[in-house]
Amino acid sequence: MPLPLPSRSSKPETKKSRSSKIVPSGNNGQSEKRGENYQEKISSSSPRRLCKKRSAFEDLTNASQSQPAQLKKEANKEFVKDVPKKIKGNTPALGLAKSNEVNMMTPLEDIDRNHGDPFFNSIYAKDIFSYMKEREEKFILKEYMNKQTDISSCMRAILVDWLVEVQMTFEMSHETLYLAVKLVDHYLMEVICKRDKLQLLGSTAFLIAAKFEEPCPPCVDDFLYICDDIYQRHEMLSMEISILQTLKFDINIPIAYHFLRRYARCLHASMKTLTLSRFICEMTLQEYDYVQERASKLAAGSFLLALYMMKLRYWVPALEYYSGYKTSDLHPLVKQLNILLTLRPSNKLKTVYSKYSHQVFFEATKIPPLDMLKLEEILNYC
């Protein structure tokens, strides 16, 4: 159950620190469910820290200087230029790996058959995700930042970084976080937003997402409080109406987090592998360059990179089968994601990074990204 922020008249209370040690789960649904519950309810610090109260994002005005786009382009070139254009395939090591992978592969199965937990809706699971992939066509995002006159992609990154803090503080599900970011992007694609209203947009989008996803969402006053009371109640309610009308009240938007859980279930992946893929995927939330990616493809690319990083390449054919994406179509995205992980230490927005450095999230940040040359060998081999 989400815990609302304390009222202004009382001092913040901290819960008794819960045990943050988790035994890595096996492949059964019960342990995965337990891991899900822990990761939703425990934030990246212990005891639970409170969300920062920010007055209209004081650092937004200097945001454009924090992560110059030119620096990213130069860094990408540095990584790519040292990789040979053509790498010899079928080396002895890779050949041996291939034979081992064939031996470890298991026949593809109907993973939705005879599942005992009624909450999985196993009978309808395949149809549900087919329907979600169809709905992606309706919610394709296009580049919108060039028509925004008062905000930039760096300001958007700061907003998303703060929304991750909100998600941890209120102890809400990751689905709420992903949906809130989607609502922000779809709204900005249609409406020009001033920078002094950007935090209002983010917090209101989170309010709507919480109403949609959470059994007991926080109230309007809680969101006004974490914005340091710089907005009035009527402003947030007006923004809520504006968002819903702009999106024509259709907010059941497919998100990558749903697809990640589906792929993990199909592959019987451990919670550690699933958590690593979630870390990779969540790192993309604050990156404007990924807004145009379909949720199902972004999830497949994140999961594929996680499999490579965990040395589980023998599950790649199964991922192809259940996701519907060929690995060759995902390789450009996998390269970009690996570069994103490699550049993360230079990123000043570290909320996602610090969140996944916790034991509850299997310290996913300690798993190193792949060397670019090694990744090229893997991709050419597949």
UniProtKB/TrEMBL annotation:
Domain Cyclin-like: 161-245, 258-342
Biased composition (Polar residues): 20-30
Stored Gene3D superfamilies: Cyclin-like
Domain Cyclin C-terminal: 254-370
Keyword Endoplasmic reticulum: no
Gene behind this protein: ccnb3
SMART domains named in the record: CYCLIN, Cyclin_C
GO molecular function: cyclin-dependent protein serine/threonine kinase regulator activity
SUPFAM superfamilies with a match to the protein in the record: Cyclin-like
Similarity comment: family membership: Belongs to the cyclin family. Cyclin AB subfamily.
Species of the source: Canis lupus familiaris
Superkingdom to which the source organism belongs: Eukaryota
Stretch list, region Disordered: 1-50
Xref: PANTHER family: CYCLINS
Gene Ontology BP terms: cell division; mitotic cell cycle phase transition
Protein's UniProt name: Cyclin B3
Alphabetically ordered keywords of this record: Cell cycle, Cell division, Cyclin, Mitosis
InterPro entries: Cyclin, Cyclin-like_dom, Cyclin-like_sf, Cyclin_A/B-like, Cyclin_C-dom, Cyclin_N, Cyclins_cyclin-box
